[in-house]
């Protein structure tokens, strides 16, 4: 009987350790999610700063170097968008299409893409989560088997 008691205690310890590690892992994942959220907020702030500087440049503020170049790039992008919009209107008129459908209307909220830098981290997180779930499931199976054997031995 001492063997089964020792085995049961060992499996109990393993299960406890797996649970503790899973809780630690979940805690780390929550922190990673918080970090990603903070990064998203920071990116939005950078974008807002860029918009403000561009508007100031358009209003006549003097800037130099990279800021001027970036503002010129924005101007070229806006011109390209206007050209494409004109081409769309021309194609609609030429083909007799009268729809006001815009692909952008499909999405009510802004969709955040995973950047190339975030993709490996997201993949690693997914793999770690899957591994932790597998370990926990295996530990539970072993514990159940041992408990069943102990019941059978006691009967």
Characterise the protein shown here.
With 155 residues, the protein is mainly alpha-helical. The chain has helices spanning 2-58, 66-95, 118-154. It has a domain at 2-61 and 116-154. 80% of the residues lie in helices and 0% in strands. α1 (2-58) runs antiparallel to α3 (118-154). 0% of the residues are buried.
Principal-axes shape call: elongated
Instruction: Report the biggest beta sheet as strand number plus sense, adding barrel if it closes.
Output: none
Strand content: under 5%
> In sequence order, what are the helices and strands, one letter per element?
HHH
Tally of strands: 0
Percent in helix: over 70%
**Total number of helical segments?**
3
The quaternary structure here is: single chain
Structural class: mainly alpha
Low-pLDDT windows of residues: none
C-alpha-based Rg, rounded: 30 Å
Separation of termini?
12 Å
Give the overall pLDDT as a whole number.
78
């Amino acid at each position: 009987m001492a063997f089964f008691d020792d085995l049961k205690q060992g499996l109990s310890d393993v299960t406890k350790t797996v649970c503790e590690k899973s809780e630690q892992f979940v805690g780390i994942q929550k922190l990673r999610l918080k970090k990603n959220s903070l990064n998203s907020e920071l990116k939005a702030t950078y974008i807002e700063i860029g918009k403000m500087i561009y508007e100031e440049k358009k209003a006549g503020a003097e800037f130099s170097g990279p800021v001027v170049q970036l503002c010129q790039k924005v101007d070229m992008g806006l011109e390209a968008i206007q050209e494409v919009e004109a081409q769309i209107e021309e194609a609609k008129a030429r083909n007799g299409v009268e729809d006001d459908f815009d692909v952008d209307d499909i999405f009510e909220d802004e969709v955040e893409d995973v950047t190339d830098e975030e993709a490996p981290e997201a993949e690693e997180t997914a793999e770690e989560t899957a591994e932790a779930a597998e370990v926990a499931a295996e530990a539970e199976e072993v514990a159940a088997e041992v408990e069943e054997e102990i019941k059978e031995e006691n009967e």
